[in-house]
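Section 5.1 Outputs to date
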Amino acid sequence: MKNILVVKRRTFTSAAAVAVAAIAAPALLRAQSKLEKSRVAIAVGGKAAFYYLPLTISEQLGYFKAEGLDVEISDFAGGAKALQALIGGSADVVSGAYEHTINMQSKNQFIESFVLMGRAPQIAMGVSTKTMPQYKTLTDLRGKKIGVSAPGSSTNMVANLVLSRAGVKASEVSYVGVGTAAGALAALRSGQIDAMSNTDPVMTMLEQKGEVKIISDTRTLKGTQEVFGGPMPAACFYTHTEFVQKNPNTCQALANAIVRGLKWLQTAGPSDIIKTVPEGYLLGDRALYLASFNKVREAIALDGILPDEGPRTALRALASFEPSVHPAKIDLAKTYTNDFARRAKEKFKA
């Protein structure tokens, strides 16, 4: 009888513990998901570019609001300007190029990516058929003006990489910030610049009208492999490592919104894109905008997860032309985390 009572008492105790846990679980989940910061300032350099399409889609379809976030997106001329906003304290998070995390670590400032939007840079470099009709090799660009979204941006980095492989130093050309939209088109068409490294839809529009001759192209996975020698992570959400540590639920909410947008983009048709993006993004030509989208579609990330080989590819590329970046001194594990993206992928089955 005594043994029976002991068993019953243990059973009751276990049952009580389960009951308490069941009651506490929802409260615990609510506590875990409570946003540390519901208002988030996001900086981006050239929001109308396809490079940042996942950001626009998640914003326009209300995915940030669905996560309880009130985001304020500030658009700058290029990625370098957006990075400055983060460093200066006017932005909490940047929608920008992954390689900035490596560059900043070389300057002893730690920022990290926490959800990937692009699995290829989507940047093409072209020479003006108007000012350089006799162009033959990259060495012809010595002494010329090259348009980039903004000096120090990822478009600038790609141009540096392409030129360095031909033995042309960055100091031997002049870089001109032209943005990623109508201003970039105008700069090339007016002859202010001789070549341009930029994103779509700008580059496809110039290419289809015969205004540029494409000499380097990372708008496809194959082209990216040829230029970088491996997978090259592109647009992502990055911020100070300290922000990620102090605001994990907020970062999770941001990652959730982006991964949900990435999933939507996997099945979206041309008409869906046209209906969702602001009219101004089309640059007055819907057909060319859609042609551009089809060209870069495979470069958009699928699930927000940064591939393991990606950071190594980016480090090799930066170190090849940036003297301040020493591979032995860079801890790539501190430049990104896939934890948030993995949870978002599981939640939305992306």
